[in-house]
């Protein structure tokens, strides 16, 4: 009953207006990986780090690669530093700072990075996936830290880079000493509170076709790459049909998507 009372107290301390303001402010940061135009997760990661420091946390801010940092904050109730005992319960709250491109912004009803509130919803690129989830993790850490709740374990919050690409952020994280201590994880993705037991993998395959220039009146002296490319696309379409024989009950069919 003690914990139930303390947890109810945490919920009562939630400032919804402040939480929404945090989500909107964070969502206005364009954290698309687009180095040619000067965009990356860096500004978003710095924002997360500054908020954690503002809330009284020490942070570990480090670069996985150029302009692509991970940010880690901890809330320790049981001291396990320099200990060989990794059986101390440690819960990870995980999220990512990058978002997918907004595409053609003229097709949006609002500026995709304005975090506009309409009809009780926050509209913007990355609000759902997953700026709001990451902010909720950060805010939960703050609420617990500011409360009189005493846990029998520790909390780690990880704001990782590059979830939308090759996932270099989490690949780096799972090889760190943090991962060795984690016993449970809440991934703050928008999964409607469903427990995920399957996941589609991904393979990025690049095909390069080298042609040979020729005069338009003598096409047979050259090599037109359009034809072999068309053959490849046709075979991809056939393979997509064959892949339907391997349907997952939860995830549907595997697929090939030429771009």
From TrEMBL:
Which cofactors are reported in the record for this sequence? Zn(2+)
Q: Which InterPro entries match?
A: ArgE/DapE_CS, Bact_exopeptidase_dim_dom, Peptidase_M20, Peptidase_M20A
**PROSITE patterns under this entry?**
ARGE_DAPE_CPG2_1
A Gene Ontology MF term for this entry? metal ion binding
Keyword vocabulary terms for this entry:
Hydrolase, Metal-binding, Zinc
Q: Pfam families given for it? A: Peptidase_M20
**Leader peptide range in chain numbering:** none
Residues forming coiled coils: none
Which PANTHER family does the annotation name? ACETYLORNITHINE DEACETYLASE
Name this protein carries in UniProt: Uncharacterized protein
> What organism does the record attribute this protein to?
marine metagenome
Taxonomic lineage from the root: unclassified sequences, metagenomes, ecological metagenomes
């Amino acid at each position: 009953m003690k914990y139930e009372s303390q947890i109810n107290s945490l919920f009562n301390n939630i400032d919804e207006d402040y939480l929404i303001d945090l989500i909107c402010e964070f969502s206005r940061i364009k954290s698309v990986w687009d180095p040619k135009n000067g965009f990356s997760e860096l500004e978003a990661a710095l924002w997360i780090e500054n908020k954690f420091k503002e809330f009284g946390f020490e942070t570990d801010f480090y670069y996985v690669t150029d302009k692509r940092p991970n940010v880690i904050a901890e809330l320790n109730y049981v001291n396990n530093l320099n200990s060989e005992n990794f059986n101390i319960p440690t819960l990870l709250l995980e999220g990512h700072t990058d978002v997918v491109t907004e595409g053609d912004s003229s097709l949006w009803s609002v500026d995709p990075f304005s975090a506009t509130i309409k009809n009780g919803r926050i509209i913007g690129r990355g609000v759902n996936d997953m700026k709001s989830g990451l902010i909720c993790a950060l805010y939960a850490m703050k609420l617990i830290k500011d409360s009189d709740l005493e846990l029998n374990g520790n909390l780690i919050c990880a704001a990782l880079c590059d979830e939308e690409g090759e996932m270099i952020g989490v690949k780096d994280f799972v090889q760190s000493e943090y991962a060795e201590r984690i016993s449970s994880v809440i991934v703050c993705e928008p999964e409607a509170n469903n427990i995920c037991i399957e996941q589609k993998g991904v393979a990025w395959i690049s095909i390069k076709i080298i042609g040979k220039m020729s005069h338009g009146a003598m096409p047979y002296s050259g090599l037109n790459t359009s034809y072999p490319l068309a053959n490849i696309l046709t075979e991809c379409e056939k393979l997509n049909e064959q892949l339907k024989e391997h349907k997952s009950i939860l995830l549907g069919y595997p697929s090939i998507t030429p771009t």
